[in-house]
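Shape matters. As here.
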Amino acid sequence: MALIRNTRTARIEKRENGVVVTRILPHVLQTIQDAIENVMVSAEAGGGGKGPLLVDLREACPLDAETRHYYSGKQLTNHFTSLAMLVPIGAWGKMFGNIYLRVAKPGIPARLFTTEAEALAWSAGFLPGLNRQ
């Protein structure tokens, strides 16, 4: 891991292959200010260029509407090439993840995963310089 930085609500790292991983901390309610900081630090971890983002939501608390909306806005398309969301195993995690993707329409390729290995492998396909078909 090239970079690790903590915010009040997340642990953000850039993997050796260039994928930015943002792990939302358990039992912490996020505010709009937290969302702004998490996106900014995640973008900085990417080194200033666009690249894939993996967000680990497996232990995250639900978001209020304003915070959820911020995470689905232009901030994603301005800084990232794809969004992999790591959700809890089971029907609830998948259901809430799918609802988020349907409502948010992130504007970049986005997909839900229950294993980090699969999420990282998919994200690697969106690293800068790769020819995506």
